[in-house]
Design goal:
Blueprint: H1 3-16, H2 29-32, E1 33-34, E2 38-39, H3 46-67
């Protein structure tokens, strides 16, 4: 499959909105780690992190009935 085919496949799949969390929170060694060893995240990630957790919670709640065992 060519790169264009992969990109189109991803776009089509994203349009179908399969179960998954679309938001991603990226971390940078240069800005989110002091001396490249101590994790010191910046406030700029708060909005994305809240969105990620909102999406994750929505999918977890939607799939809760599927996780229930019969008889409970």
């Amino acid at each position: 499959m060519t790169n264009i085919g992969i990109i189109l496949g991803r776009l089509i799949t994203a349009g179908l909105q399969p179960p998954g969390v679309r938001t991603q929170v990226s971390r940078s060694l240069a800005t989110d780690f002091a001396a490249f060893t101590t994790f010191t995240p910046g406030d700029r990630h708060n909005v994305l992190l809240r969105q990620l957790l909102t999406e994750l919670t929505a999918w977890a709640d939607a799939h809760a009935p599927l996780r229930r065992q019969p008889g409970r």
